[in-house]
Amino acid sequence: MRRLVMLFLPLMLAACGGGADDPREFVKNAGKDLRGRVAPLPEVKPYEPFTYEAMDLPDPFKPRKLEPPKGSGGGLAPDFNRPKEALENYPLESLKMVGTLSQGKITYAIIKTPDNSLYRVKPGNHLGQNFGIITQVTESEVKLTEIVQDSGGDWVERPASLTLSEEPAAPAKK
Fold it and tell me: Where is the signal peptide, in residue numbers (predicted)?
């Protein structure tokens, strides 16, 4: 074993030292062909202090009532003293128009409630929980005007409608 190590030791030393140039010469010539360029530093702008002047603005986190424009009466409001009709107990979204009925010159809409009750309504009747009053009844739609409060607390009119809903026919009994 010792002879084997003695035989390979000169070979390993010859492999390490063969063909290598002087390290000082290598370092001297390593950067000879490189020409680097560094971009100039950006210009530093002088500090300009900011003065906060929003103390006079309203606080966005406090609720406030918007002021109505000058000259507006703002007299729109629902009649809280009139007796409520049966269909005012249901949200408008839960009611369905299932048909129409004509008697003389008046066209009535047939309205179905969530508890499967049917009601006959005409223009002038009230509908839904937002003080809706029916303005027009057609073959396929009931148009109404609701009175709701806006974000400022004022009462405004909003159009709404119920369209004719096709219910699937019941299967025939054998």
Answer: 1-20
